[in-house]
Amino acid sequence: MKLIKLKKTSTFFWPKTLYNLNNFHKMNRENASKLWKIIQQAGDHLQGQLPEHPNHPSGRNPYAHVAICIKNKFALSYKDIPDEQFDNVLKYIEFLKQNPS
Fold it and tell me: What is the pLDDT, as a whole number, of residue 59?
């Protein structure tokens, strides 16, 4: 069995930009709290608007939908997204509210 040594730096790709996660801090508590409230409001807004899906016979959870979409788009949980991306996350949540999928 061959062991692989991992580097300490983590990087991920953002559209047209490369970010090194070591240059950012996680979202501060205040912003994370604000963002969670906005996610809840978006979930309230999307209640009953998401299309039916065979994997969810009793209906889709709009709160989980918003959180999962954020995680898929930004490759991080909403709490782990850097503060510098806060406005981009807000814009994306607005997009989700206008385009239920």
Answer: 86
Buried b / exposed e over 64-77, threshold 16 CB at 10 Å, is ebbbebbeebbebe
Are 80 and 27 in contact by the 8 Å Cβ rule? The answer is yes
> Which pTM value belongs to this model?
0.74
Q: What is the DSSP secondary-structure string of 9-77? A: --EEEETTEEEEGGGS-PPPHHHHHHHHHHHHHHHHHHTTTSPP-TT-TT---HHHHHHHHHHHHHSS-
Q: What is the DSSP letter of 85?
A: G
Angle at 66 between CA 82 and CA 62, to 5 degrees: 155
Q: What is the pLDDT of residues 36-88, one digit of tens each?
A: 999 999 999 999 999 898 988 888 999 999 999 999 999 999 999 999 999 99
